[in-house]
Amino acid sequence: MTSLQDLPLRDRLIVALDVESVEDARALVATLGDAVSFYKIGMELAFAGGLALVQELKSSGRKAFVDLKLHDIGQTVERATRQIAKLGADFLTIHAFPQTMRAARLGAGDSGLRLLAVTVMTSYDDEDLAEAGYACGVRELVARRAAQTKDLGVDGLILSPQEVESIRALVGPSMLLVTPGVRPAGSETGDQKRVMTPALAIAAGADHLVVGRPVTRAADPRSAAQAIVAEIASGLDIASRLNHPR
Ligand code: C5P
Questions:
Q1: Residue nearest to atom 10 of ligand 1 (CA)
Q2: Does domain 10-240 have CATH number 3.40.50.980?
């Protein structure tokens, strides 16, 4: 397996294709050209036929992250994961419930599909967990699920930039940590409440950043993506000076 330190710089930026049609997504990929190599297909685009883009992206040398946050009975998760693996996707999200993680691991087999677990949705707070019947708070549940993720052989975690540093300390250097909620300095935060700049998120221990609107809604998306990649490079530099190279 490639070490995280061998990750090409450009592959650390994942652009979220949060658009409503496959045509809009193709146009965005064409606009971004060689500035972006990794794309995320979420529910909106997937339900508009966007899973077909996985093979298109792969055949043009790009990478694809399928963000469908799977959670169902084990048999269904296993079989669904196998289908996503057959498409050639690089990353797939699942919810961090032990039964779901075990099943997805079986479905992924040795396909090369890497599983990323969502511990607790970042839109949830302690009150939401209490309302849903949990007896613990968000921090405790994130830590518990992060530890289980590692034990069950899941490849990585999706988490908020604020959680990266403490979770990196808990799970060690080999788990992939992927974070949305990233905003270049001076940009609009939109509905994201807890944001961090690309350089700081990488310096805190993230491996990949998921960025949507700061690229897709920029006046010049290509330059916006290139500027984020440059910020990622400076974050890697800070990380190596802090003696924890990513
Ligand atoms: O436009 P923006 O940069 O906020 O997009 C972030 C992307 O990451 C969106 O596709 C969003 O669904 C996803 N995401 C998130 N927060 C999470 C999990 C996923 O923003 N906790």
A1: 16
A2: no
Contact in structure between 216 and 15 (CB atoms under 8 Å): yes
> What's this model's pTM, rounded to 2 decimal places?
0.94
Ligand 1 near 180 CB (within 6 A): yes
What's the pLDDT at 2?
44
Mean pLDDT of 9-18: 97
pLDDT at 34: 96
pLDDT single digits (tens) 138-148: 999 999 999 99
Residue 69 among the catalytic residues: yes
Whether pLDDT at 1 is above 60: no
Distance CA 137, CA 126 (A): 5
User: How far is the centre of ligand 1, averaged over its atoms, from the C-alpha of 194 (Å)?
Assistant: 12
The domains of the chain are located at 10-240
| Selection from 241, 239, 242 nearest residue 4 by Cα | 239
User: How many Cα neighbours within 13 Å face the side chain of 137?
Assistant: 3
CA of 217 from ligand 1 middle (Å) equals 14
Centre of ligand 1 to C-alpha 14, Å, is: 11
